[in-house]
TrEMBL record:
UniProt KW Transmembrane helix keyword: no
Family: Belongs to the metallo-dependent hydrolases superfamily. ACMSD family.
Endpoints of the signal sequence: none
Annotated source species: Streptomyces uncialis
Biological processes annotated in GO: secondary metabolic process
Protein name, as recorded: 2-amino-3-carboxymuconate-6-semialdehyde decarboxylase
Length: 340
């Protein structure tokens, strides 16, 4: 059975000097790798952001991890703090090209096992489209984007233009929450990650649906949301009820939210058998892809265990573990080579 993990992060070895040169700021993201054997620290300028393991930047360690975990192929995306959406356009283009170059080099360690997604300067639509086209010609399998730009959600006209370009370029899109809610209510117990991430993704999916954006986007667009779609699958009944009862909710959407679950996919990073069963029931087994959030501490430690030990049928299990990902990201060659 082919196993493909579609939600996994890389933080390239970008040092502080390179970050400062590219971003023009002393507060840009960079990686400190001198903390001890196999350990490092994600940095934001002089501030420590998160301790990390060598797997995050060393492809040999990554492949050894995949061997240990029984994963054939991993789809790689940058760490969201590397998006660079706050940079002016020229710097944003240079920054994304640099990150993309690092990602290609990382994946080149084993092209049959590591499938990279690019990133783009989403703050400028023309530049984002050009960067995507360039990246797809270099061998990327799609693009990894944040779920919003300040107060613009993905239903904003400029972002819909970019998503339409992704469909035209046959580029799969992985949407990841970022720039999470802050303040005293979110500062304790990692609540920005535990509650904010789920809420951000839910908000973005509903914004696309209720704005009528899916009526305007090409049906060929391959769109996927991380972390099981956040709160959306578990509160879909509430959204449908609101659409039927309030004209304010259905003003721009000709169909209730449940009508649009065939327009996007989600990963399986929900960590609970009951939640996974509900996710598959809501989205359909063909729209749930194995995702681990590897190698971060909040990710699935034994990639695929939840799916393997679930009450899904054998056919559903095979689809979620790898079959769906092969189609979604165009991985036929990678999976054929990886499972030899």
């Amino acid at each position: 059975m082919t196993v493909v993990d579609v939600h996994a992060h890389v933080f390239p070895e970008i040092g502080r000097a390179e970050s400062r040169r590219l971003t023009g700021s002393d507060d840009g993201p960079w990686l400190r790798t001198t903390d001890g054997p196999g350990t490092g620290m994600m940095m934001a300028g002089a501030a420590e952001y998160r301790p990390v393991q060598r797997t995050l930047w060393d492809p040999a360690e990554r492949v050894a991890d995949l061997d240990r975990l029984g994963v054939d192929v991993q789809v790689l995306s940058s760490t969201p703090m590397l998006f660079g959406y706050d940079l002016e356009t020229a710097r944003g283009v240079d920054w994304c090209r640099t990150v993309n170059s690092h990602l290609l080099s990382y994946a080149a360690h084993d092209r049959d096992r590591l499938a990279p997604l690019c990133q783009v300067p989403l703050q400028d639509t023309e530049a984002a489209c050009a960067t995507l086209s360039e990246a797809m010609s270099q061998g990327f399998h799609g693009v990894h984007i944040g779920n919003h730009l300040v107060d613009r959600d993905l239903d904003h006209g400029a972002l819909l233009e970019f998503l339409t370009h992704c469909a035209d370029q046959d580029a799969a899109v992985l949407v990841h929450p970022w720039d999470l809610p802050s303040g005293p209510r979110f500062s304790r117990y990692m609540l920005a990650w535990l509650a904010g991430m789920a809420g951000e993704t839910h908000l973005t999916i509903l914004s696309l649906i209720l704005s009528g954006a899916f009526e305007r986007l090409p049906a060929s667009l391959r769109l996927m949301f991380a972390h099981g779609g956040g709160s959306f699958p578990y509160l879909l009944g509430r959204a449908d009820n609101a659409w039927h009862r309030r004209d304010l909710v259905r003003a721009d959407s000709p169909h209730p939210p449940s009508h649009y679950t065939d327009r996007f996919s989600v990963d399986s990073a929900v960590f609970d058998p009951g939640a996974l069963r509900l996710l598959v029931d809501v989205m359909g087994a063909e729209r749930v892809l194995l995702g681990s959030d590897h190698p971060f501490p909040l990710g699935e430690e034994e990639i695929g265990r939840l799916v393997r030990e679930s009450a899904l049928t054998p056919e559903e299990r095979a689809a979620v573990l790898g079959g769906n990902a092969v189609r979604f990201f165009g991985l036929a060659r990678q999976t054929k080579e990886a499972v030899r």
